[in-house]
């Protein structure tokens, strides 16, 4: 890439923008990284490299004078830029990019038409008693398009004061009320007993928190619930609620 200092003045005059890095030698110009920023943010990746895969690719392409930077949208406020960034990442798929996570927008992100239907119409699905379990409210940890392993690890731990009732056999991973996945709970163990591959957690040896051992539920169960809006009691600030049990039982066990 040519001297980048000449771009600093024009970038400084712009409002928040969304940008894409790509291999200029690729005729499709398919991005490998999507970002947002103000001022010379898009140039900082070149000026201040780190040891990430994204940075390594940027430096390699820049050395070959093949680093392309496109401004996808500009002249936006921060809220709009977050939405545009998240939408671009959702469209391309984080698996196709060197972005570590989805965009920073707090909105739902990419969902299926069926999920959209249930969400907008608020058509709730009640959990059957034979599928009683815990609905985990992943409103701060869920990311649109996260891997199946990342979703499982966000759901299985780590939890305080978990009700280890043997009748609660299923775990429902939910975000904004939508059921993203269902797991069969095999057992509960002390938090930190199992290894986490997608989360960086510091768990004290004397922790009283727990995590479950499980697997994705049978397809027949998933067909009933995944993508549906779950009917559940109020959480009262708790990160999980019991579902599929009668109100009287919830009151007794709470």
From TrEMBL:
It comes from Candidatus Pantoea multigeneris. This is GIY-YIG domain-containing protein. It comes from the Bacteria. CDD domains: GIY-YIG_COG3680 (cd10440). It holds the Pfam family LEM-3_GIY-YIG.
